[in-house]
Write a structure and sequence with these properties.
Blueprint (H helix, E strand, L loop, with lengths): L4 H56 L2 H23 L5 H19 L5 H19 L1 H5 L7
């Protein structure tokens, strides 16, 4: 049985239309997932810094190190929460993420600078760039959850 060429063209076009409409969804899923993963990785790094600072505080007896450890732990928690809630694409979550990243970048540049500081600085800058480049995914309010 032979099909008419016009029918084949309609079927081919409809299949191609479905495939092309799924590409932006896959791209947005990938970028949001990458941002989530980077927030979680950043949170884990800050958790490690908080634990090491708390261990240092316990041996040094300085209350300043305890305060720093608590602030680092809070930063870690905020970054982890941002990583877990970013997919909901609420503008508030997006702007809170931008604010935390800017604060982290500024504070990293104004403190003692070591290898872990460089790692978190680069991670924060990549994450900030990714969020700014994909702003429309978060600000328009469309949910990416399945």
């Amino acid at each position: 049985m032979r099909t008419r060429p016009s029918l084949m063209l309609v079927e081919a076009n409809s299949g191609r239309h479905e495939a092309s409409s799924s590409v932006p969804q896959m791209t947005s899923d990938w970028t949001v997932g990458a941002a989530q993963g980077l927030f979680l990785l950043d949170g884990l790094i800050w958790l490690g810094l908080a634990v090491s600072t708390a261990l240092w505080a316990s041996t040094s007896g300085s209350s300043l190190y305890w305060i720093l450890a608590i602030l680092m732990l809070g930063n870690s928690a905020v970054l982890a929460v941002l990583g877990l809630t970013l997919r909901r694409t609420r503008p508030l979550i997006y702007f809170l993420g931008l604010a935390i990243l800017v604060v982290n970048i500024v504070l990293t540049l104004t403190d003692q600078f070591g290898l872990l500081d460089l790692l978190t600085l680069l991670l924060d800058m990549v994450l900030l760039t990714l969020l700014l480049a994909t702003r429309s995914l978060y600000v328009r309010g469309a949910s990416l959850t399945r």
